[in-house]
Amino acid sequence: MTEIGTTVLGYPRIGPDRELKRSLERYWAGKIDETALLETGRALRTRAWRELKDAGLDSVPSNTFSHYDQVLDTAELFGAFPERFTKLGLTPLDTYFAAARGVQDAPAMEMTKWFDTNYHYIVPELGPDTAFSVAGSKPLDEYREARAIGVETRPVLVGPVTFLLLAKATETAPEGFRPLDLLDNLLDGYVELLRRLHDEGVEWVQFDEPAFAGDRTEPELNALIRAYHRLAKETARPKILVAGYFGGLGRGLGVLARSPIDALAVDLVTDESFVDAVAAEPALRDKEVLAGVVDGRNVWRTDPTRALSRAATLLGTAKSVSVSTSCSLLHVPYDVEREAELHPRLKGWLAFAKQKVDEVVLLGRALKEEGVDLSAARAAATDRATAADLADAGVRARLEALRPEDTVRSPYAQRAAAQQAALDLPPLPSTTIGSFPQTTDVRKARAAHKAGSLDDAGYEAAMKAEIERVIRLQEDLGLDVLVHGEPERNDMVQYFAERLAGFAATDFGWVQSYGSRCVRPPILYGDVSRAEPMTVEWARYAQGLTGKPVKGMLTGPVTILAWSFVRDDQPLGETARQVALAIRDEVHDLQEAGIRVIQVDEPALRELLPLRKAAHEAYFAWAVSSFRLATSGIDDATQIHTHMCYSEFGEVVKAIDALDADVTSIEAARSKMEVVTDLGAAGFGRGVGPGVYDIHSPRVPGVDEVSGLLRTAVGAVPAERIWVNPDCGLKTRGYAEVEPALRNLVAAANAVRSELG
Ligand SMILES: CN1c2c(nc(N)[nH]c2=O)NC[C@@H]1CNc1ccc(C(=O)N[C@@H](CCC(=O)N[C@@H](CCC(=O)N[C@@H](CCC(=O)O)C(=O)O)C(=O)O)C(=O)O)cc1
Ligand SMILES: N[C@@H](CCS)C(=O)O
Ligand SMILES: [Zn+2]
């Protein structure tokens, strides 16, 4: 094989029935041994490779499997685990899991969002003393394993520059040290790995460099030049494919085109204008170009006419052009055919990973041969494009009729006074972010309800019992603003999608979010509207149990879009306004039901921030206005909260301010309240609840620790605007940790309160 030909850049790995998730969690719980866990992985890989080969792809990727995360795998491969894990004396597999999840006395490595997706990677910690070497053999092992079952594969690796750009400096690294300073040493490792792969008989290797879909500095572009000149210079190496995805490559395109690599994969879906840039790049004439025309991140069936015209535009530019996905298929579910409950017409418009592989094969043939039958694909595209019932005239008319004043609340000072009069809260009021632990009983009740073995009344009774338990617990703990605990929600986005017109939910559409945790992103296919209240009865019930205020709990429009598969036939901002209108109705109904505090969560505000700065302003405009549309038109005395997790607020501080929420709770415990200082410096003048309990860790913070964090916050922002709360919801934790942690949180609030003048 000289060309790569048709391929996909990566494939889902959690298993069609979340086999890996179940095995991992059983292994961590001590219920199965290492051999059993490794066997699950082997079986999943075998199945995936066979499927990809049998589907007719010219090239099948390997090393796209991971027991947790591909960036963590790369750190392990090059021997770059922090000493706090390697000194524990654990097996290699347990050292790997310790780095991912933490153990007593060795906190986990940081986890953060993989570019603008809902997948999370583990952040490598690198310092001037980090010495890379080829310490592992995973890519080689998987290559051999595939070859043993008769599948020749193309190992996929995180590219060296992206790896370093995703890493952070260790806490002890000197000022000014950047992980990119380690490039030459890391390249030694990659060169050695290339040599080993070559000796093994590997023909092609893929390096992923998605970091170049974002704005990059001159030194970073120079690093890209250096890296691929160095790697390609080696004579004992497989052919090199570099994959840039999640957008156009900007100046990275010219750099890679002029480097001596053999092939380049480009994303021709995310940014249409990039197609012309690629077509106009003369230096591609000696390279194979993989035209990423099948969307790896969304679930719509590919329009063959558009896809082929994009790919064909490159025919005169590159040495050869083949068809591929725009990025790895990690971000979509396995197989739409399993979705028996989906409306058949909608199903006909969809392609999950398995169907996308077939699309790549079909389009690849159509690009090279005459007479390939594309009629079914064309008919599906036409059917969707002309489906009149996707539009809801009522929703569109309501949005048309909105006036600017409909998205503006009274001045904050006026609202704050009315809210204090209504709520009569003490200084440093304490609250939680919404969810309480989702116990096995709660999940079992939901599963039984769905299966029909628990009727509606039984399910409602089970949820109400849980809500009452959570309310009584919070009263006992002495929290000031209570929550109902969200037991009725399978997921904070899916729950709403299941109740809104315009969305469809799936039964098996699981996508890995991090480690063993998965989500089922709903499919947003038409205009959005709310038929009836979605949360009001649960909130009313909870409020009826207590004299303390109960916070209503909603998910905001940006987050609902970020964690759904969105329609691609209209601008995201337009869809956001429709979702916002439905949330606005819910806010209004909660207020009417006597709920005086309403939280509209926007944890994905940062995640959807475009990778390129040039697009930020337009994004902020629609993101902020959709939140304001959702949260205005209510009484001054109704207090609006919002919540964001995932630090790195720097770039979105102004947008957070523009949301105009009365109270904003944010993740802060891990960064030791840094964000409060940032907010103070940005002139943020409303309520703020910096998280004082890191809920991502099983550790119970002590009273002194929480008091210390609170004192830092009080030093940076006037005390009358500070709230006391955890970093995020408690749904993934157990009561054994949550109860003492919240008890300490309340005790700390009381202690610092008593110190206020
Ligand atoms: C806050 N986060 C979220 C993100 N995206 C979302 N869409 N939602 C989020 O909350 N992105 C950023 C972060 C990511 N964090 C998480 C945290 C936790 C999970 C998680 O725990 N996922 C669960 C699945 C949750 C769910 O949908 N549960 C359903 C179905 C439960 C189920 O699996 N049932 C069993 C049967 C019941 C039983 O016996 O236990 C089954 O089907 O086998 C429900 O509760 O009804 C996970 O298991 O991975 C995800 C992202
Ligand atoms: N209200 C949600 C927010 C998570 S980001 C929760 O508490 O789980
Ligand atoms: Zn959160």
TrEMBL record:
<keyword id="KW-0489">Methyltransferase</keyword>
<feature type="binding site">
    <location>
        <begin position="433"/>
        <end position="435"/>
    </location>
    <ligand>
        <name>L-methionine</name>
    </ligand>
</feature>
<dbReference type="InterPro" id="IPR013215">
    <property type="entry name" value="Cbl-indep_Met_Synth_N"/>
</dbReference>
<protein>
    <recommendedName>
        <fullName>5-methyltetrahydropteroyltriglutamate--homocysteine methyltransferase</fullName>
        <ecNumber>2.1.1.14</ecNumber>
    </recommendedName>
</protein>
<dbReference type="Pfam" id="PF01717">
    <property type="entry name" value="Meth_synt_2"/>
</dbReference>
<comment type="pathway">
    <text>Amino-acid biosynthesis; L-methionine biosynthesis via de novo pathway; L-methionine from L-homocysteine (MetE route): step 1/1.</text>
</comment>
<feature type="binding site">
    <location>
        <position position="601"/>
    </location>
    <ligand>
        <name>L-methionine</name>
    </ligand>
</feature>
<feature type="active site" description="Proton donor">
    <location>
        <position position="696"/>
    </location>
</feature>
<keyword id="KW-0677">Repeat</keyword>
<keyword id="KW-0028">Amino-acid biosynthesis</keyword>
<feature type="binding site">
    <location>
        <position position="643"/>
    </location>
    <ligand>
        <name>Zn(2+)</name>
    </ligand>
</feature>
<keyword id="KW-0808">Transferase</keyword>
<feature type="binding site">
    <location>
        <position position="601"/>
    </location>
    <ligand>
        <name>L-homocysteine</name>
    </ligand>
</feature>
<dbReference type="InterPro" id="IPR038071">
    <property type="entry name" value="UROD/MetE-like_sf"/>
</dbReference>
<keyword id="KW-0479">Metal-binding</keyword>
<feature type="binding site">
    <location>
        <position position="667"/>
    </location>
    <ligand>
        <name>Zn(2+) 1</name>
    </ligand>
</feature>
<feature type="binding site">
    <location>
        <position position="113"/>
    </location>
    <ligand>
        <name>5-methyltetrahydropteroyltri-L-glutamate</name>
    </ligand>
</feature>
<feature type="binding site">
    <location>
        <begin position="433"/>
        <end position="435"/>
    </location>
    <ligand>
        <name>L-homocysteine</name>
    </ligand>
</feature>
<comment type="similarity">
    <text>Belongs to the vitamin-B12 independent methionine synthase family.</text>
</comment>
<dbReference type="InterPro" id="IPR002629">
    <property type="entry name" value="Met_Synth_C/arc"/>
</dbReference>
<feature type="binding site">
    <location>
        <begin position="517"/>
        <end position="518"/>
    </location>
    <ligand>
        <name>5-methyltetrahydropteroyltri-L-glutamate</name>
    </ligand>
</feature>
<feature type="binding site">
    <location>
        <position position="645"/>
    </location>
    <ligand>
        <name>Zn(2+)</name>
    </ligand>
</feature>
<dbReference type="GO" id="GO:0032259">
    <property type="term" value="P:methylation"/>
</dbReference>
<keyword id="KW-0486">Methionine biosynthesis</keyword>
<feature type="binding site">
    <location>
        <position position="118"/>
    </location>
    <ligand>
        <name>5-methyltetrahydropteroyltri-L-glutamate</name>
    </ligand>
</feature>
<feature type="binding site">
    <location>
        <position position="486"/>
    </location>
    <ligand>
        <name>L-methionine</name>
    </ligand>
</feature>
<feature type="binding site">
    <location>
        <position position="563"/>
    </location>
    <ligand>
        <name>5-methyltetrahydropteroyltri-L-glutamate</name>
    </ligand>
</feature>
<dbReference type="GO" id="GO:0009086">
    <property type="term" value="P:methionine biosynthetic process"/>
</dbReference>
<dbReference type="GO" id="GO:0003871">
    <property type="term" value="F:5-methyltetrahydropteroyltriglutamate-homocysteine S-methyltransferase activity"/>
</dbReference>
<feature type="binding site">
    <location>
        <position position="645"/>
    </location>
    <ligand>
        <name>Zn(2+) 1</name>
    </ligand>
</feature>
<feature type="binding site">
    <location>
        <position position="667"/>
    </location>
    <ligand>
        <name>Zn(2+)</name>
    </ligand>
</feature>
<keyword id="KW-0862">Zinc</keyword>
<feature type="binding site">
    <location>
        <position position="728"/>
    </location>
    <ligand>
        <name>Zn(2+) 1</name>
    </ligand>
</feature>
<feature type="binding site">
    <location>
        <position position="21"/>
    </location>
    <ligand>
        <name>5-methyltetrahydropteroyltri-L-glutamate</name>
    </ligand>
</feature>
<feature type="binding site">
    <location>
        <position position="486"/>
    </location>
    <ligand>
        <name>L-homocysteine</name>
    </ligand>
</feature>
<feature type="binding site">
    <location>
        <position position="643"/>
    </location>
    <ligand>
        <name>Zn(2+) 1</name>
    </ligand>
</feature>
<feature type="domain" description="Cobalamin-independent methionine synthase MetE C-terminal/archaeal">
    <location>
        <begin position="428"/>
        <end position="750"/>
    </location>
</feature>
<feature type="binding site">
    <location>
        <position position="728"/>
    </location>
    <ligand>
        <name>Zn(2+)</name>
    </ligand>
</feature>
<feature type="binding site">
    <location>
        <begin position="18"/>
        <end position="21"/>
    </location>
    <ligand>
        <name>5-methyltetrahydropteroyltri-L-glutamate</name>
    </ligand>
</feature>
<dbReference type="InterPro" id="IPR006276">
    <property type="entry name" value="Cobalamin-indep_Met_synthase"/>
</dbReference>
<feature type="binding site">
    <location>
        <position position="607"/>
    </location>
    <ligand>
        <name>5-methyltetrahydropteroyltri-L-glutamate</name>
    </ligand>
</feature>
<comment type="function">
    <text>Catalyzes the transfer of a methyl group from 5-methyltetrahydrofolate to homocysteine resulting in methionine formation.</text>
</comment>
